[in-house]
Amino acid sequence: MIGHRFIQFDPNANGKSRFEQMLDVFMQLLTYTNGDAAEALQWMNELDRQYGFTDDEYGMGDFIEDLKQNGYMDENPVNGDLSITSKSEQSIRKRSLEEIFGKLKKTKQGNHQTFKPGQGDEINPETRPFQFGDMLEQIDFTESIRNAQINHGIDSFTMREDDLQIRETDFKTQTSTVLMIDISHSMILYGEDRITPAKKVAMALSELITTKYPKDTLDIVVFGNDAWQIEIKDLPCLQVGPYHTNTVAGLELAMDILRRRKNPNKQIFMITDGKPTCLKIGGKYYKNSFGLDRKVVNRCINLAAQCKKLKIPITTFMIASDPYLQKFVQEFTEMNQGKAFFASLDKLGAFIFKDFESGKRKTVY
Question: What is the pTM of this model?
Answer without folding.
Answer: 0.69
